[in-house]
Known about the structure:
Bound molecules: zinc ion
Largest sheet: 4 strands, parallel
Number of helices: 22
Shape: elongated
Oligomer: single chain
Strand content: 5-15%
Distance between the termini: 75 Å
Amino acid sequence: MKTAHWADFYAEKIKKEKGPKDLYTVASGITPSGTVHIGNFREVISVDLVARALKDSGEKVRFIYSWDNYDVFRKVPKNMPEQELLTTYLRQAITRVPDTRSHKTSYARANEIEFEKYLPIVGINPEFIDQSKQYTNSIYASQIKFALNHKKELSEALNEYRTSKLEDNWYPISIFCTKCNRDTTTVKNYDNHYSVEYSCECGNQESIDIRTTWAIKLLWRIDWPMRWKYENVDFEPAGKDHHSSGGSFDTSKNIVKIFQGSPPVTFQYDFISIKGRGGKISSSSGDVISLKDVLEVYTPEVTRFLFAATKPNTEFSISFDLDVIKIYEDYDKFERIYYGVEDIKEEKKRSFKRIYELSQPYMPSKRIPYQIGFRHLSVICQIFENNINKILNYLKNVQDDQKDKLINKIKCAINWIRDFAPEDFKFSLRSKFDNIETLKENYKKAINELLNFLKKNFEVATEQDIQNEIYKIARENNIEPALFFKQIYKILINKEKGPKLAGFIKIIGIDRFEKIVSEYIKP
Ligand SMILES: [Zn+2]
């Protein structure tokens, strides 16, 4: 069978390179030293898509996500309160740094929680591994001993890509001082068994036992390949920074061999840029965009679609501007093809259906979800003043099993209009009538005629009929049609333009239309 999607291609590659296995392990991970942003999310969803492809081909899969939270707090983030307090935690493990936004948990954990909360919404449920717990509970004691016993091979492997070679007193570990908790330490001696001696800038000097200490960790360039072996990782993608020649992926490939393991299948995923957010900065995350921010404007399935429909080694933008409308339209087309209500060429169809399937956070629904164009929906939301019940009521024929997804889409439309839509897109129906302008007699007469036409024909008239009638009435009353349109918009929404008028009047409904225009045609 020819593969339909890049995730299927990689699933096949993993099976071919790693051979038959009872369980395949796919991995992702990051240091939570700041808000986990949408670029980091690209790695997680890439792994999720490959995991699904493996599962769909009949394999069992374990998806692990490592929080590399035993890293050092190197820099105080600018958007954090209590900068001075935070400065006192520099060089300590990020799990020890308080989250000065809430003081409820650590800085690292706060960043983790924020991300973990939103992943299940997009259907991603990995097994989280807390690296600081692994280290402080001495889980990797024998790996640390192994690394210390093989420090010569390890330094040679690293030196292969280094211009300045590592010195003889180099060790593959770093140590947090047990007195001051900082990593401002130097390894003095290792007895080739379990005892490591170190000194710290604070004056502390002592010996610690690898088997019981919480203070030792492997250097990151050693730790990563060590875990490939420890967790039997079969697949792990990485960003451009790790995949550069001589970068951490290259050195890890050599180092994992020293640990008697083999490197995972991988690919490089590219950066993501953000388009059309203007000056809007997320309050929670400083100047980066998180998954939460994306979910404000894109439903979970469309969020997945952005990634599932793009090859991982292509750079792309997540747009918050008018492109949002087009992206929803594209998604709707994939949906119609998936459910067989729209047809395309056979060879394309399979690929479209696969992308749609992989875009679903969970199982695709039996019935096609309720379809409504995002542009149209954003007009409806404004007419009904963002009242979800009124919107659902207006839409009619929404089945119970279609409601959840539709409500999500409505909420996204409301958020988009409020925060990102261009000014021309925004309006509210007139509700105040003090100080309204007095119309010329021919305009009054024309609007009266339009009202009468609509009252008689509202149910049966198509948008085209209404459009034609507006032109006809304008000409009969010696009004330039463009000016007549402008006048009607001014009356309805106090703007010179708005959504396509005939359709707009249809959505407003004859009663509300009459209520507004009557104020202008009173004798
Ligand atoms: Zn110290």
